[in-house]
Design a protein that fits this description.
single chain, about 170 residues, mainly alpha, about 0% strand
Length: about 170
């Protein structure tokens, strides 16, 4: 049973890594990733042993995160893929989603700073770069925030309620 639980827990890290890499290389986060996170949460939560009330709280936090991020998307402050990914990941974190958001902001700020510095220094080499790297290093292009979302999720996940419940039952 513990192997099945570990596989269920591994869904979040695996999918956010895919999302971060996809955003880095294409500036898009595919809908299937966020959808898979939402669908996988419910069996994972039940396998780990979260109570129905805890699952409902997680769902409420996910819905609240979606409402907030859709608002930010509507205001032009966030990409649609980022909004859906944050909401799907928040579902997995429940009441500890604040730590996920905090880590995402910290990692996002550091990542943006690195990208801005790199953009200033790589202009002479743009033509020799692969297409995705050239796009990433072109000034005034967006910064792929899926990388920060993935970093925030991976950093906060060990302290999440799902991991805590799994450790308590192990």
């Amino acid at each position: 049973m513990q192997v099945v639980q570990l596989i269920a827990l591994a869904v979040l890290p695996a999918l956010v890594i895919v999302a971060g890499l996809q955003d880095l290389t294409s500036m898009k986060i595919r809908n299937w990733i966020s959808a898979a996170l939402v669908v996988a949460f419910f069996p994972a939560a039940l396998l780990i042993g979260l109570t129905p009330l805890a699952v409902a709280v997680h769902a409420g936090i996910g819905i609240l995160a979606l409402a907030i991020t859709i608002g930010l998307f509507a205001l032009g402050q966030m990409g649609g893929g980022d909004a859906k990914l944050i909401a799907a990941v928040s579902l997995w974190f429940g009441l500890s989603a604040g730590m996920f958001v905090l880590w995402t902001a910290v990692i996002g700020g550091a990542f943006a700073l690195v990208i801005l510095i790199a953009r200033a220094r790589t202009q002479p080499y743009l033509a020799a770069m692969p297409g995705w790297a050239s796009t990433l290093m072109t000034p005034k292009n967006r910064i792929p925030y899926g990388v920060a979302i993935a970093g925030g999720a991976l950093t906060a996940f060990p302290a999440s309620p799902l991991v805590a419940a799994w450790l308590a039952g192990a």
